[in-house]
């Protein structure tokens, strides 16, 4: 039972719902939705009781009447301050531990509730939930917290959304000990079983019509899963947490954010202008790609999801060094591993055993890897891969798709081709992503001349596995090797890269970016007979065997293999992706704001009414976001260091920024008029 603590489920329920009026009492096979949930909750052994918490609004009389008629404990309180209703419910029931359930989840299961409550009691934490990330369908949500924490939440709630959604303050608080509970696989994180829209209700009715054949219940999760499969009903499509995103939007104003003090940034820029052409060592880190006078130019420090600029302004960083910091800045464990190695030397005169250990490990993780050579940058790896492909095939031409680095053979295909000899440019040819026939035509146009097809297997477009398979067949039909450039996809979409996700194994592949969580390391991996060419072909540079970065990489792999980093990235990335969409849609910007990609790495843009890129709207949005403490370039680069606090800060920044753009549109003002600096120079496009 409950460890001497009195554990009470508080079920919030209401009739008013703009999307589904009368929601809680909607009929589900002759029983109101709320009654279905209560019947399920009765099966939870970890509970000492439950109470329904509804509002004092007259529309909720029906809920009270239903509870009274069925001898159910009910309490009524504020309609909008649901948090205060919970405090009331906790007092009425004298609960020590509160289990938060919502009346719109008639397919909840008692074993799900028990698992989370028992985990909470066992871990001795202040708060536990099974929604960060979802490992069971939406509609199986459980949050558990103490009465003491609930009181603290009421006292400290800052926003309306804290009161309406009960737990945002608790989830943001860094002082409280929390447990993110994961149910055992299979993980059904995208399934939706809660009821918000008429479609959701139809789905739930179909499932219950199957369950009702199995007796009076309660039914456990497995039984519900089988009924879902048997009913074969389409699940609702609405977005999880939509109400929370809309609350943040409600709280936001369309007022311009105050400009940041960037004096120090400009002082450094003046000095930099004298000694550093382009102002940064990496193209996309230059101030030219941001709004001058609005965005900081120099950063001083970073920890986790946050960075501080030279003026002391702090930001949630959604650039994360252009993807390397998959665990966030300055991860303690990774840095400790690298520092420990550095203390016993790191740029050695001969090879070091850790090179072998890391190579062996990568060969276990990456499907195409029989052998490995290391580099420092992604460009080292792609250059090496293309060189051995040329040496292996005795051919010179390459087909390229995506971005592959700064070396002549690739950058010569872009508009930044200054300084690349014509003869080199003539050897590389681009092909469009997603069009296998175009590649076939390209390779046919120079029969037996292509050494390799090098491509990003996935970036912001999610391919069919059949597309990647046909690319492989086409490359091989023409005698070319297939190289997957997984510098970005490699560790961001999971260990093993896109080749593992899609089950298509290339001849060679390149990895980099997140391999060392910011410690510079990359690699080319591949088929033994091709990799052996490195014994003759030249890939060599002084720091390729720097073992501190290798020690960092070993630790990154430890963390990614055994921890919940990917799950946390999915939770954070999904919230930003969904939150942005919900807010843009609600403000009528749904057609103007576009976002695509994977929750861990997505890209966004603004377009005008003719579907053309709207750089001014984008700049205004970014200006407002930056000034509210969120640093973004063109993509959302998600790290596992993003927590509820930083995610909420970003979402709240989105809300203000969207409102500002919407206001400009409403008033017929060109967004450029509200941008306090020249529009950034767009980067050349390779994707
Ligand atoms: C897909 C891809 N390949 C190669 C590279 C080149 O990597 P680096 O800049 O580390 O040389 C990049 C860099 O952004 C990349 O995104």
TrEMBL record:
PANTHER family found in the cross-reference section: GLUTAMATE-1-SEMIALDEHYDE 2,1-AMINOMUTASE, GLUTAMATE-1-SEMIALDEHYDE 2,1-AMINOMUTASE 1, CHLOROPLASTIC-RELATED
This protein's record includes keyword Transferase: yes
Keyword Cell cycle in annotation: no
PROSITE patterns: AA_TRANSFER_CLASS_3
Listed InterPro entries: Aminotrans_3, Aminotrans_3_PPA_site, Cytidylyl_trans, Nucleotide-diphossugar_trans, PyrdxlP-dep_Trfase, PyrdxlP-dep_Trfase_major, PyrdxlP-dep_Trfase_small
Domain of life: Bacteria
Keyword vocabulary terms for this entry: Aminotransferase, Pyridoxal phosphate, Transferase
Annotated source species: Thalassospira indica
Gene3D superfamilies referenced in this protein's UniProt entry, alphabetically: Aspartate Aminotransferase, domain 1, Spore Coat Polysaccharide Biosynthesis Protein SpsA, Chain A, Type I PLP-dependent aspartate aminotransferase-like (Major domain)
Protein name: Aminotransferase class III-fold pyridoxal phosphate-dependent enzyme
Requisite cofactors: pyridoxal 5'-phosphate
Pfam families: Aminotran_3 (PF00202), CTP_transf_3 (PF02348)
GO molecular function, one term: transaminase activity
């Amino acid at each position: 039972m409950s460890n001497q603590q009195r554990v009470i489920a508080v079920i919030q329920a209401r009739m008013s719902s703009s999307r589904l009026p009368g929601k809680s009492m909607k009929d589900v096979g002759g029983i109101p939705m709320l009654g279905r949930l209560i019947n399920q909750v009765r099966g939870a052994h970890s509970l000492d009781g439950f109470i329904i918490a509804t509002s004092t609004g007259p529309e909720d009389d029906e809920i009270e009447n239903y509870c009274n008629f069925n001898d159910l404990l009910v309490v009524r309180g504020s309609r909008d301050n649901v948090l205060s209703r919970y405090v009331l419910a906790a007092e009425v029931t004298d609960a020590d531990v509160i289990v938060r359930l919502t009346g719109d989840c008639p397919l909840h299961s008692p074993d799900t509730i028990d698992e989370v409550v028992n985990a909470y009691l066992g871990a001795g934490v202040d708060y536990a939930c099974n929604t960060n990330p979802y490992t069971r369908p939406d509609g199986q949500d459980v949050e558990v917290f103490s009465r003491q924490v609930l009181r603290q939440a009421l006292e400290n709630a800052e926003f309306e959304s804290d009161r309406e959604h009960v737990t945002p303050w608790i989830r943001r608080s860094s002082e409280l000990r929390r447990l993110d509970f994961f149910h055992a696989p299979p993980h059904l994180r995208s399934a939706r079983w809660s009821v918000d829209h008429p479609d959701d209700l139809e789905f739930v009715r179909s499932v219950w019509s199957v369950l009702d054949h199995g007796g009076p219940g309660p039914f456990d999760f497995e039984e519900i899963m089988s009924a879902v499969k048997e009913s074969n009903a389409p699940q609702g499509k609405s977005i999880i947490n939509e109400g929370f995103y809309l609350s943040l939007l409600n709280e936001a104003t369309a007022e311009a954010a105050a400009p940041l003090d960037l004096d120090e940034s400009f002082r450094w820029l003046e000095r930099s202008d004298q000694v550093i052409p382009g102002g940064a060592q990496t193209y996309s880190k230059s101030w030219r790609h941001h709004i001058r006078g609005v965005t900081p130019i120099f950063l001083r420090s970073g920890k986790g999801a946050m960075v501080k600029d030279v003026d002391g302004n702090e930001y949630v960083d959604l650039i994360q060094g252009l993807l390397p910091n998959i665990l966030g800045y300055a991860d303690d464990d990774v840095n400790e591993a690298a520092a420990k190695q550095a203390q016993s030397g790191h740029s050695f005169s001969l090879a070091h055993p850790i090179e072998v250990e890391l190579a062996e490990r990568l060969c276990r993780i990456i499907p195409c890897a029989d052998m490995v050579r290391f580099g420092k940058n992604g460009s080292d790896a792609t250059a090496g891969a293309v060189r051995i492909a040329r040496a292996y095939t005795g051919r010179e031409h390459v087909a390229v798709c995506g971005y592959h680095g700064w070396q002549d053979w690739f950058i010569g295909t872009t508009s930044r081709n200054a300084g690349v000899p014509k003869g080199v440019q003539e050897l590389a040819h681009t092909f469009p992503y997603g069009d296998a026939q175009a590649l076939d035509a390209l390779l046919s146009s120079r029969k037996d001349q292509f050494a390799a097809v090098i491509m990003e297997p996935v970036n912001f477009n999610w391919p069919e596995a059949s597309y990647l398979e046909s690319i492989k067949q086409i490359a091989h039909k023409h005698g070319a090797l297939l190289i997957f450039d997984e510098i970005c996809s490699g560790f961001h979409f999971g260990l093993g890269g896109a080749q593992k996700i899609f089950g298509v194994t290339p001849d060679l592949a390149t990895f980099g970016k997140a391999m060392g969580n910011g410690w510079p390391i990359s690699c080319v991996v591949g088929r033994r007979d091709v990799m052996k060419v490195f014994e003759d072909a030249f890939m060599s540079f002084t720091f390729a065997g720097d073992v501190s970065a290798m020690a960092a990489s070993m630790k990154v792999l430890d963390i990614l293999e055994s921890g919940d980093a990917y799950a946390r990235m999915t939770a954070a990335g999904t919230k930003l992706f969904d939150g942005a969409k919900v807010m843009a849609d609600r403000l009528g910007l749904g057609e103007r704001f576009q976002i695509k990609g994977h929750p861990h790495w997505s890209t966004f843009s603004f377009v005008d009414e003719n579907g053309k890129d709207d750089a001014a709207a984008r700049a205004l949005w970014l200006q407002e976001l930056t000034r509210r403490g969120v640093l973004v370039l063109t993509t959302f680069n998600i790290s596992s260091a993003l927590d509820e606090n930083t995610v909420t800060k970003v979402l709240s920044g989105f809300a203000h920024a969207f409102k500002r753009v919407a206001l400009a549109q409403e008033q017929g003002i060109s967004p450029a008029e509200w941008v306090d600096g020249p529009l950034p120079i767009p980067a050349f496009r390779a994707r």
